[in-house]
Specification:
The chain is of the alpha+beta class and 72 residues long. The protein has one domain. The chain is built from 2 helices and 4 strands. It has a 4-stranded antiparallel sheet, with no helix packed on it. It starts with a strand and ends in an 11-residue tail after the last helix.
């Protein structure tokens, strides 16, 4: 199910995680050649993607919302 990005935080390993409107979190790594997300590497890039939709597998599975972090 598609869900818009509402914010970001870093996990304990320093990787960016998107916070979705549904209450779930999803990693948004830039790890070429497997995942190409250069926008995640800058604050301006992350800000430009607020409101963009990501596929939320947790919604598809009916999972409870994740613990929310502060927006960064």
């Amino acid at each position: 199910m598609k869900q818009p990005i509402t914010g970001y935080h870093k996990d304990e390993e320093g990787h960016w995680v998107a916070q979705l409107a549904c209450g779930h979190n999803q990693h948004v790594r830039h790890t070429p050649p497997w995942v190409n997300r250069p926008w995640v590497t800058t604050e301006q890039g992350r800000r430009s993607m607020l409101g963009s939709e990501l596929d939320c597998r947790k919604c598809d599975e009916g999972a409870d919302p994740d613990f929310r972090q502060d927006n960064n």
